[in-house]
Amino acid sequence: MTAPAAAPDPILEVRDLTVSLPGGLDRANAVEGLGFDVHRRQIVCLVGESGSGKSVTAAAVMQLLPRRVLRVTGGTIRLEGRDLTAAGAAQMCRLRGNRMAMVFQEPLTALNPVMRIGTQIAEVLRIHRPDMAAAEVEARVLALMEDVRLPDPAALRRVYPHQISGGQRQRVMIAMALALEPALIIADEPTTALDVTTQAQILRLFRDLLTHHDSGVLLITHDFGVVADVADHVVVMRHGRMVESGPPGQVLTRPSHPYTRMLIDAVPRFRFRAAVPAAAAPALQVSNLQLTYRSRSFTGKKRETHALDDVSFTIDPGETLGIVGESGSGKTTLARCLLRFEMPDSGQIRFGGRDLAAASRRDLRDHRRRIQMVFQDPYKSLNPRRHVGQSLVEGPVHHGVPKREAAERAAGLLEMVGLGGDAMRRFPHEFSGGQRQRICIARALAMEPEIIVADEPVSALDVSVQAQVLELFEELRRRIGFSMLFITHDLRIASNICDRVGVMHRGRLVEIGRTEDIFRNPGHAYTRELLAAVPGGALGTAGER
User: Fold this and answer.
1) Which CATH superfamily is domain 281-537 in?
2) Are 323 and 331 in contact (CB under 8 A)?
3) What's the pLDDT tens digit per position in 449-477?
4) Rounded to an integer, what distance in angstroms lies between the CA atom of residue 10 and that of residue 538?
5) 1-99+184-265 has which fold?
6) Left, alpha or beta for 328 (phi > 0: left; psi -120 to 50: alpha)?
7) Is 0.70 topped by the overall pTM?
8) Alpha carbon 377 to chain centroid distance?
9) How many DSSP H helices and E strands does the chain contain?
């Protein structure tokens, strides 16, 4: 990718920025001595792990730091020549949305759930352009929705955030950011939780918008695949400091700092597992599973969604089967049916000699001990008011294990997943995201399950932490011998951990087979589309391990 010529005067100038942390933490400053520029029609990527200071930098630019916790104690931040560190509250209110705007990581929490999306886009215009006539506001809203390629803007502007997909919600956030043609757009991990095709569309959208608008973009990410696709300039941060800076061709191919090389090495690449012989009998057999959701659209029209459409597959003892596909393809619905959180309309789920699709509540009690789930978000999966030990002991005790024995087992599992026994007495908020996911894995193993269903268990984690959790899954599977259904939207991750993979599209399993066979020689057009959308394809190399 050829970077556009940068304008002589940058939109954003950050010089020697320092943001202090409260006393008693592992370091004195969240950001220390940071400096970089963002020019017009340029995408600058801030890259680093959680805790590196990326989001703190963005919040400092927008003056959204929690005042009692984080303070700018040194340096300057200039937006189009204005020193933001000296700006008052009234001036910042005029600048936010008007000259700079932010696209947050999770659009579902960033959007107001009780306001229609058209109203939310219009709100930016009404606040900063009170003299605009209602007809002008309406026309601008439709034009913005068209600009970010939302389908049927006239109808879609009347819906609520929960009625559209994650990719569409992110496009709404971008439309709000563009409403007043700001000079600077800050995008904080805007594609982290999106499937590969939606991620590719959003990244292309950012690049295309720069050709139509005279803005600059500060893009925060932990994924070097994203950097390879869109960056004009890269700033690598670690522990609040900039360790490397330069054009992507230099940073990606000739990194000068060991930390940058570590991050690049942690990016998932296509690596395929050696073939394993099929078992005599499957651990789980799913046959002709059907589930249809019936609802009404926002226009009142009856709507049917075939969440699962004649889905059939098996999982062998000790095997990891991956399920890949876009959001809305039916992956999570399938997982919920296996746990019987959802009741399928028809079909069979054969496990332990029983059809779980027809099991009674009494039968399900034992079934849920033998099939456990690891959820996508480790922050929401644990009760914040309970010690970790209480969360791990609860399940076994409920199923008749003596409390002392359950506690000893929990302490051993925490050691097994790389956490000390003292973790038993700590609360979830005292751990990092990767550590919390390790706790969730230990909680699932506490029930001694035969099958683990892992629903996007690493999508919210940094690439280096992803690699650690994937290695942990692999080590535990070898040691304990459980089978696993591994749901992911990242085909690179699926290639690393899955013996076989199934591709889901609109509720159907369009192809299934050995992972290397499917990814090297896809038989379905949809699989080829997913493979083509993998970010930073040039970084990936295919091999076998």
Assistant:
1) P-loop containing nucleotide triphosphate hydrolases (3.40.50.300)
2) yes
3) 999 999 888 877 777 888 888 888 888 88
4) 30
5) Rossmann fold (3.40.50)
6) left
7) yes
8) 9
9) 21, 22
